Amino acid sequence: MGKYQLGEFEEVVLLTVAILYGEAYGIAIIEEMEKRLNRSVSIGSLQTVLRRLEKKGFLTSEFGEATQVRGGKRKRYFTVTQYGRKVMEEIKEQRLGMWSAIPEVAFK
Description:
By secondary structure, the protein is mostly helical. The chain is about 55% helix and about 10% strand. The longest helix has 19 residues, at about 80-100. The chain starts with 7 loop residues before the first helix and ends in an 8-residue tail after the last helix.
């Protein structure tokens, strides 16, 4: 399928981080995914995938400022890297290529 091994959930997380540009932290990512996909997402599975995508070089993260609302705990914000964007574009092209190869008669 290509040189990048990316599972469906990883792809959705990567897309969601891009959608939330500048505001992509754990709970915001979960809320956006649940709203758009109408499916529940656990914080544990999300954290696992975020770490994996960061390790692969698709994402970077940094801590925001501590707030009183969170008891002094800082949020970790995620951003898609240039490499991550390249991967996303290649996956998009692969998907579009597959869709365009389906003959019209297949959906009648």
